[in-house]
Specification:
Layout: E1 2-11, E2 18-28, E3 33-37, H1 44-51, E4 59-64, E5 67-68, H2 73-79, E6 80-83, H3 95-105, H4 110-121, H5 137-149, E7 155-159, H6 167-182, E8 186-191, E9 202-207, E10 210-215, H7 217-222, E11 228-232, H8 236-245, E12 249-255, E13 258-263, H9 268-274, E14 281-285, H10 289-302
Parallel strand pairs: 3-8, 3-9, 6-7, 7-8
Antiparallel strand pairs: 1-2, 1-4, 4-5, 9-10, 11-13, 11-14, 12-13
């Protein structure tokens, strides 16, 4: 359904080149929710723009629904839906006007395809006369998704769709994606939120334009391969500084109300004895996608 082979993209001039994408290859199957997970600047948006024919790659090939992103531009645009990270609908148009406009672009009507967006649109239909610029973040998100779906695409590209949206709206949005997947729609979604990775069938961890790993969320966690410890004390910043300077510690970083630590040598008791913390709590904990990402980033920096 989606296939990329050795895609690269560089920005800038000769003396100040920035490699946005570096030899990216992966494929996405029909009906799969595939996540691109990484921080801002990792290359996610450049990849989306290439796959939606808005940007040309410098090297490599990519196809969507069997169509080449360079040779078959029109065919791809008719068969995909794209929701950019930045709210891109017309702020001065109403909800209703925005949806009608996007339907017209694809030579269809809201009436003809209403059943396709009914479940989502019904949640914002009471506000159909409200200008898009006056909507809440969650309602803007649902409107943008309706506009991306109104022409019945078979592939949906969602570039950081939940950034800046409240937790309840994020949860609702991912429930919607699950129902779209059940309809056979292929979804490529990018996000900086590691907790959303677990909701995907497979994920690709990306940093600095490079793919660090591709696997199921469970597979990525399984491959962490090291014991992980959670530490907490009254003085968290001094504790982190101590951990980073300890010869026993391979890696240490903040994680919510704890610091997560991977040991280079020794054991938790030895580590605790070496630290100048009277209130220290230390326990073994299960790794999460964030921990795997941090480990892969560190490994990539050493190469």
């Amino acid at each position: 359904m989606i296939d990329l082979q050795h895609i690269s993209k560089t920005y800038g001039k000769k003396n100040s080149l920035v490699r946005a994408l570096d030899d990216i290859s992966f494929s996405v199957s029909k009906g799969e929710i595939f996540g691109l997970i990484g921080p801002d600047g990792a290359g996610k948006t450049s990849l989306f723009r290439i796959l939606t024919t808005l940007l040309l790659p410098d090297a490599g090939t990519a196809t969507v629904n069997g169509f080449d992103v360079i040779k078959d531009l029109k065919a791809i645009r008719q068969s995909v839906g794209y929701m950019p990270g930045r709210f891109s609908l017309y702020q001065d148009l109403t909800v209703e006007e925005n949806l009608n406009f996007f339907a017209t672009i694809f030579n269809t009507t809201v009436h003809a395809n209403y059943e396709h967006v009914k479940e989502i649109y019904s949640q914002i239909e009471p506000f159909r006369k409200r200008r898009a610029g006056k909507l809440s973040g969650g309602m803007k998100q649902k409107l943008a998704l309706c506009c991306a779906l109104i022409h019945k695409p078979t592939v949906l590209f969602l570039d950081e769709p939940t950034t800046g949206v409240d937790a309840v709206s994020r949860k609702e949005f991912w429930e919607i994606l699950g129902r779209l997947k059940a309809q056979g729609i292929t979804i490529l979604v990018s996000t900086p939120y590691m907790d959303e990775a677990a909701k995907c069938d497979r994920v690709a961890l990306i940093q600095g334009g490079k793919l660090l790993s591709i696997d199921t969320p469970a597979g990525i966690v399984k491959n962490f391969g090291k014991k992980l410890y959670a530490l907490k004390a009254d003085r968290m910043l001094p504790l982190l500084n101590e951990l980073k300077g300890s010869p026993l510690v391979a890696d240490a970083y903040p994680f919510g109300e704890f610091h997560h630590v991977v040991l280079k040598k020794g054991d938790p008791a030895e580590l605790a004895a070496s630290l100048n913390e009277e209130t220290l709590e230390i326990s073994e904990t299960e790794p999460m996608i964030e921990d795997c990402f941090m480990a892969l980033m560190k490994y990539d920096e050493r190469k």
